[in-house]
Amino acid sequence: MSTGSPSSLASTKRRLTHVASHLRTPKLKVVVCRDLGPNVMPLLRDRPEIDLVVWPEDKPCERPWLLENIRGAAGVLVMLSDKVNQELIDAAGPSLKVASTMSVGYEHVDLPVVAKAGVRIGYTPDVLTDAVADLTVMLALMASRNGGEAVSLVQSGGWPSFSWSPFGLCGPQISASPFSPKRTVGFLGFGRIAQATLARLVPFGITHCLFTSNPSSTADPAFEAAIAAKYGVQVRRVGLDELARESDVLVVLAPGGARTHHVVNEEVLRKMKKTAVLVNTARGTVVDSDALARALREGWIWGAGLDVVEGEPNVTADHPLVKEPRAVVLPHLGSATIETRLGMATLAAKNLLGGLGLEEGMPAELDVKSRA
Ligand code: GLV
Question: Whose CA is nearest to atom 3 of ligand 1?
Answer without folding.
Answer: 103
